[in-house]
């Protein structure tokens, strides 16, 4: 029973990290129709920026940890906004070019990060309370798991409130449905779409800092490894569905944890699940069928 509880909660923590990355992917695709393959670069740069600032303040302190999250969120948001403004804005109706540009940016970013920080993972000392565990029904669960889960819940609630309760959220959803009509009303849809990219980058930035603390290191390949599962989660949940991404994150991560522990084939099972979903329900668990 203790093992079951431990695997379940750590699976939820891993799912929280997947969601923080997948939420930005889902938001950008659902509202703008863009598959952003450079999303992992936002995460990686934010993780390194958070680590650089945090280690100067002391990553082994609570204040250093909090500041690293704030810096990571800001860097991720800025990088995403610049990417949309400089590269993506001119390619909204050119999907092949979108893929080529974002894939190229992703590869170039990894090479740049390796040139600056090296290709090997950089391990660091975390705040003492993050390295400690909390007892849950006899299972000792790392505190980083609970931090990741809490952050994912806050991001999900914040995104839903933003899209449904704010003026810009309504403009963005209206612009997706009928961009020309919203533009005719004198509203700058381009600015709203830049905001979507910015919010997606911010979520990725938070995920990058939390992932580095979860695993205990930063690496140029950190974003790429998480991006693979984030794309799987996004497809399984339904492209463009935040709720679907949340559900799929939990399902994928928990299944992965249990399968890895008992049989060691967690990644294979996740890919198999993706194949089954695409065959049985191509639009994903909570996605909408194309007209």
From TrEMBL:
Main location group: membrane
Recite the UniProt keywords alphabetically: Amino-acid transport, Cell membrane, Membrane, Transmembrane, Transmembrane helix, Transport
Task: Write one Pfam family the protein is assigned to.
Answer: BPD_transp_2
Q: What is this protein called?
A: Amino acid/amide ABC transporter membrane protein 1, HAAT family
- What is one process in the GO biological process aspect for this record? amino acid transport
One Gene Ontology molecular-function label = transmembrane transporter activity
* GO cellular component terms attached to this protein's record: plasma membrane
Where is this protein localized, as stated in its record? Cell membrane
* Residues annotated as transmembrane: 6-27, 34-53, 65-87, 99-117, 137-163, 192-215, 227-255, 262-280
Question: Which species does the entry assign this protein to?
Answer: Tessaracoccus oleiagri
Family the UniProt entry places it in: Belongs to the binding-protein-dependent transport system permease family. LivHM subfamily.
The membrane topology term of the UniProt record is: Multi-pass membrane protein
